[in-house]
Amino acid sequence: MNKLWLIIKREYLVRVRKKSFLIVTILAPLAFATITFGMGFLTAYMTRNSTKQILVKDDSGVFKKYYKQKGGNVYTFTSGKINELKRIYHKKGYDMLAYIPAYNDDLENLKVKYYSPKKPGLSTLGKVESDISKSFKEYKIEKSNLDRQILDKLYVDVSLENAEAIDSQGDKTGKVSLIISTALAFVMGFLLYMVIFIFGTQVMRSVMEEKINRIVEIIISSVKPFELMLGKVIGVGAVGLTQLFIWIIFIPVILSLAGMFFGQVPQNGGSMMGMESQINPEDLKQFPINMVIHEFFSLNWGLILPAFILFFLGGYFMYSSLFAAVGTAIGDDQGESQSLIWPITVPVVFAMIIMFNSVENPDSQLAVFGSIFPLFSPIVMPARLPFDPPIWQVGLSLVLLILTCVLFIWISAKIYRTGILMYGKKLTVKDMIKMTFSRN
Amino acid sequence: MIILKIDNVVKRFHKKTAVDGISFEIDKGSVFGLLGPNGAGKTTLIRIITSIFNADEGTIFFNGEKLNEFHPHEIGYMPEERGLYKKMKVGEQLLYLTQLKGLSYKDAKISIVNWMKKFEMKDWWNKKIEELSKGMQQKVQFISTVAHDPKLIILDEPFTGLDPVNTELIRNEILRLRENGATIIFSTHRMEQVEEICEDIVLINEGKVILEGKVEKIKEDFKEHKYKVEFYNSVEESQLEGLDIVSFTGRELIFKSPEETESNDLLKFFIDKNINIKSFAEVLPSLNDIFIKLVTE
Q1: Per-domain residue ranges for chain A?
Q2: Which chain B residues have a beta carbon less than 8 Å from that of A7?
Q3: Contacts of A202 (CB under 8 A, 6+ apart)
Q4: Which of A149, A344, A354, B115 has an alpha carbon 20 to 30 Å from A75's alpha carbon atom?
Q5: Of all residues in chain A, what percent carry a pLDDT higher than 90?
Q6: pLDDT digits (tens, 9 = 90+) for A389-415
């Protein structure tokens, strides 16, 4: 035990004392803040610049009459000849020339031609189409003598709300809860994905370093190879936890400071993780901050927190022990590890894809399978936790994960024990399977 | 008293038998040579002694006890493939390795500081290994092997890569450690070094012991009754008629005598012919000769 502690201590201190650790730990939250605010400002800038100047020759006269300018593209109407207009529109500073042909009321499909020096974006085309289409709708309503008041009554705004939440908290909390759950699901799933990759790779490098340095033979003449591997995995894991802990404290602090500096905390920060489809910033603005905080704390933390920690540990130990085994498989060239990493990388990437899907459909068959299958569960299940998955699924997933974790550590230890002393020869997957079943 | 007894040890890797029923004993306080060509099974045997590998068959006794998990603390091992953590500082690294051998922080520090003083490297405590020359690194490696005051020290090719000054330094330390009661296993294929410091040897080839015993006794057993004579003046070959000459240069002669002949009778041969002898000595085979003879047989 004392020796295991010595190994953990060394692995931990060697990394924590490095300048690069300090730099990454401090710079990462800054980079996070910079990216978040950068994205915010970039989006704002892009939106401002997405306004196009469009010259329109409207032979139908409908668009000119019925279009109501309300921000967005600026349309300038002209009656010049189309050939002449094609020649001059760009020189006069227009981004596009649109030609609406004469309109016959029986036509259901109107073909509007456009000219543009550069390829316009899909959103620009969509906006122009929509603007023209709306004008024609107005024209047809008027032409058909329909009562506008009746027409307005035809539209019903439907929104789904959580009945249980409404009963206890008023009418908007269901949506807040969903938004918070979604954000939390992404953060937890993504965090585990990062932890497995970043720290698993560190374990692998550390094993490779000892093998290439040849110090490993001295160490294992004092301790069992399993102790060395375990010490390494725990030590590197502790570095990861330290870093996470620092970030958990620092990121909100930096975000709030930056928020104060810039006036408000941007709400599109989550878009980096693909949350834009889930969260409408407009929705967030409707909810007072105390309601958000209340909802955040009323999540089922009694399940989420311990389960997250267990999946974190299970996932990290399972994958990092495999990374350790791969670390021993290389000969004397660090580059050789690349071809052996893919059997580990593929399930992690799959898990990540399933995780994205699970956030949108937490109870889909794929999500349930992904969150129980042990190679995927450390990434997928944490992303389902905020959506209150059935407790038996969490339990089954954990049992399977722990069993697989023990099995993988056992296999890795066998490969590790033999692999670390095989100098100058790159091991193949076949060699590693042989080692797993060999007695010594 | 026996410190290490190897009893019919076998180790197989897949189809290859690396150690094939090896048995020998090592006396406490001796410098013992474990010899053999590359691939003979020396390193595998050492790894079994240091508990890195388990033997498939046979038993090892350390100080009369069956080898157990506490014995590695009493063994210091310097493998042929040396290695240290390049980015770690000398002091930190030695403390780590010595503590892994079971010493407390305090005891480890006292021992390491003493050794560093002895090797005149007091100021290196905070230097990183990568900042040291190869010779300096070898000294650090040697300290890491002996700082926990082991009863048995196993040195696999300890002089590889050392300059003559450091070779002498380490050689003297090996002898001094023996005087203080440690037993040293010296594994090598460099025979001249073995002759200088080992009292007993075992020669392994293809996983089996092919020769063992005291160095002097082995040399005696393998001697070919050759003698070397140096003369003050040049001698005519005709004067040496009757001798089985191996080589002759006028002033130096090596010849082979019949087994039962006494050296005094041989000397008499020259005195009777009034030849002035500068030196006369029996030529014993070097371990290298014996080694090559046995291994190529």
Answers
A1: 52-154, 171-437
A2: 100
A3: A15, A236, A239
A4: A149
A5: 17
A6: 888 999 999 999 999 999 999 888 888
Look up residue A230 and give its two tokens. Answer: 């375990």
Which of B73, B88, B100 lies nearest to residue A219, judging by beta carbons? Answer: B100
DSSP β-ladder status, B252-256 and B244-248: antiparallel
pLDDT of residue A127: 85
Tell if the CB–CB gap between B72 and A222 is shorter than 8 Å: yes
**The two three-digit tokens of residue A5, written as one number:** 């502690």
Q: What angle, 0 to 180 degrees and rounded to 10, lies between the N-to-C axes of helices B134-146 and B105-118?
A: 140
Nearest to A79 by CA among A106, A102, A95: A102
Cβ–Cβ under 8 Å, residues A325 and A416: yes
Would you place residue B74 in the very low, low, confident or very high pLDDT band (cuts 50, 70, 90)?
A: very high
In a 13 Å sphere around the CA of B152, the CA atoms on its Cβ side amount to 23
DSSP character at residue B286: P
ipTM of predicted complex: 0.81
% residues pLDDT > 90 (chain B): 37
The residue among A314 and A360 whose pLDDT is bigger is: A314
> ∠ at Cα B260 (B259, B262), nearest 5°?
110
State whether B83 and A14 contact (CB < 8 Å): no
Does residue A272 register a pLDDT over 50?
A: no
Both tokens assigned to A32: 């996070």
Confidence of residue A254 (pLDDT cuts 50, 70, 90): low
Domains defined along chain B, listed by start? 2-214 (3.40.50.300), 222-296 (3.30.70)
**Chain B CA closest to residue A206:** B85
A20 near B CB under 8 A: no
- B208-226: per-residue pLDDT in tens? 998 899 988 888 888 888 8
Give A-chain residues touching B10 at CB under 8 angstroms: none
3-state SS track over B45-80: HHHHHCCCCCCCEEEEEECCEECCCCHHHHEEEECC
* Phi, psi at A144, each rounded to 5°: -85, 0
The Cα-based distances of A383 to A14, A185, A192, A249, A359 in angstroms read: 33, 4, 10, 22, 6
- Collect all residues with Cβ–Cβ distance below 8 Å to A35 and sequence separation of at least 6: A272
* A224: nearest CA partner in chain B: B52
